[in-house]
Amino acid sequence: MLQMRPGCECCDTDLPAASTGAWICSFECTFCTACVQGRLGGRCPNCGGTLCPRPTREGAALARNPASPVRVFTPAGD
Fold first, then answer.
1. The dihedral sign for the CA sequence 75, 2, 21, 52
2. CA 43 to CA 64: how far, in whole Å?
3. So where are the chain's domains?
4. DSSP letter at 24?
5. What band does 78 get if pLDDT is binned at 50, 70 and 90?
6. Angle (CA) 35 38 42, round 5°
7. In what order do the strands lie in the sheet with 30-32?
8. Could you tell me which InterPro entries the record lists for this protein (predicted)?
9. What is this structure's pTM?
């Protein structure tokens, strides 16, 4: 199950579980659209993998399986 990390690892922008602006790699590194399209060029700076839109989680599914409260902030791509 996806961790649904709460923020962009590059710029620390909030990315709630229902956000359509979150992107992940196969290791669930999480980034916002602005960072993915700008400084990261569609690639994860941690593993080099392709970044894809993260699915959303809402309503009862989110209540049963809450998003992770753990923020990862490791600015990269400068």
1. positive
2. 31
3. 1-55
4. E
5. very low
6. 75
7. 30-32, 22-24, 52-53
8. DUF1272
9. 0.90
